[in-house]
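WARN retry 2 of 3 for item q-0093 after timeout on previous attempt; input resubmitted unchanged.
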Amino acid sequence: MPPASHTPPARVGVRQVAERAGVSTQTVSRVINDHPHIRPETRERVLAAMAELDYRVNNAARALGTRTTRTIGVIASDAALYGPAVGITALESAAREADRWIATAYADAADAASVVDAAARLRAQGVDGIVVLAPHEGSLAALTDAHRDVPVTALHTQVGYDRQREGAALAVDHLWRLGHRRLAHLAGPADWLEARARADGVRTALAAHGAAAVTWVGDWTAATASSLAAEIGLAARSPSGPTAVVVANDQMALGLIAGLRHVGVEVPGEVSVTGFDDNPDAAFYRPALTTVRIDLAGEARRVVAAVRGEPVSSPAAPVLVTRASAVQPSR
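OK item q-0093 returned
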């Protein structure tokens, strides 16, 4: 016996919605396109009809009428790292709040040609603007030059940069209040704008106290920080060595703490350590990590508004989260 054929239900269109709501098809189109001059009760009636009929907006058709796809392009890289991964999530939420959605293209953020190519692929999808995650200075400049006719912005630039810098300064000032006078800095990669902002914050805060930090550079990963632990631990045990390390992110802080423990240097008994990001695991490190939390949701809302050409609001100020990894110096 042949299988029964299944005919999919006919797709609901604007005409059916108009009939259900008792309005014209033009009114339905205006509601779909967020036209401002629609009475609230009419808008509610149309939206209710759309829900009852399970009407799905045809984005391609809407784009023809409005010259917008309501889609924001996101160029992502290094998504295995905590910062970029949560950045994508924050942008998705911010776009949804603005009744937009995102299209993501992956690129090597250190390679300007790769970033420009990713932008071209997003442009082919008709995105209304582009947001760059994990931006590198050179690639961001190349992208802006190559796509001048579409809004381009990045997380943690402009006021977002300032918030990163302020957060790093919070960590330095906290250690200074605890009595630390010799600090080290485990920085992120120098070509990342986030790393530059955080390093700038450390440098500026220490300069205000008349001090400077000895600096090591990592790649954001726990593995690299762990590999530097023997060298940092040796420096810490010298008579004039650092009594605290300001680390540019939580992943590296975790690696450093584990590496120091492996070579017999106690945290915080001999060296205090601070992180940055306040990732969900930071409270469960051994010891629990003192770190800095930034308003990533607010930063995502800022850049979504920027690519839409709307007034932007500033993300909230960073917050120091004090835990067990930073205490008064023992020497």
